[in-house]
Amino acid sequence: MAEGDVETHSNRGQWENRVEGHPELSQSYASRDEAIEAGRRFAEERGTAHTVVDSDPTGVITDPAPTDVPD
């Protein structure tokens, strides 16, 4: 990916648009379709490429369990 390109991908049940070289511009979305539309629009406005990394959406946001929390 080149500087400023937008990649839409799934991350633990959420869909994200990651902007190459600009992590502060990255955004999360509840649905794949919403993320793709926003990513496409954002890339078009900036004159950069937009790619979608296909994966099966889980519909669940999960965080790893803490391993060092005392009982």
From TrEMBL:
Residues 1-71 are annotated as: Disordered. Residues 1-23, 31-48 have a biased composition (Basic and acidic residues). It comes from the Bacteria. This is DUF2188 domain-containing protein. It comes from Agromyces salentinus. The lineage of its organism: Bacteria, Bacillati, Actinomycetota, Actinomycetes, Micrococcales.
